[in-house]
Amino acid sequence: MTREPTPRKNGETMRQINAELEICPAPECPDETGPSNSYGSLMPVEIPPEELERSLRHFQGNECKQEAVSKSRKNRLLSDADGGKCSTCSTVMKHLIGIKFGHERPDAATLEHVNPRCLGGSNDDHNLAVRCNLCNRASGHVVNEWLQRHQYEPSWDERKSMTIYLWLEVYCVSMAEELFPDHFRSFTTKRKSMQPKTEEEVRA
Ligand SMILES: [Zn+2]
């Protein structure tokens, strides 16, 4: 499918696009205990400019969707994250090797593209994150719901906004909730619906 390149807004530059992202600089992330990724280090919240540039080219029809990450690279990243905490919910993750699983394994480590491939997300290291199975699935639900709402053709501004939300959801969840309450509500509602029920809930 080819897409007609959409003209940029007058005078809009990547500098301006990045300036908009300054609403969420890393040092101001209010969660002082986090956000740590599965490797235990603090991650910057800023989206690398090359990631947004790639997304913009994709939106304009000048960049292909990225291939899936190779199995060996995926396994290496998942294995590195084994025993680490999900950056969003702090679940201790397990690398389940050679096992197919659904949402019944909330603690399974899963690899995701923070900026989704369908929005032009890259396979660069900065765009790959390991999160727990439930956070990954719930996040996918937020994107699908949003795409449906925009008849699968969200504008560039909407795409940028979604990418910022997703970045915050992974690296600074308190800010994701504060700045994007609707997306975050959709995320938490979906996540909760997939959580295994406690014994008390089963009996109720
Ligand atoms: Zn999680």
Overview in brief:
This protein has 204 residues and is mainly α.
Question: Main attributes?
Answer:
two-stranded antiparallel ribbon; 2 strands; mainly alpha; binds zinc ion; 204 residues; 8 helices; single chain
List the helices and strands and how they pair.
Elements: H1 14-21, H2 49-59, H3 71-81, E1 109-113, E2 128-132, H4 133-149, H5 156-171, H6 173-179, H7 181-194, H8 199-203
Antiparallel strand pairs: 1-2
The structure holds zinc ion.
Zinc ion binds at residues 86, 88-89, 91, 131-132, 134-135.
Summarize the structure in words.
By secondary structure, the chain is mainly α. The chain has one domain. Helix content is 44%, strand content 5%. The chain is built from eight helices and two strands; from the N terminus they run αααββααααα. A two-stranded antiparallel sheet has the order 1-2. The chain is globular. The N terminus is likely disordered. The structure holds zinc ion. Zinc ion binds next to strand 2 and helix 4.
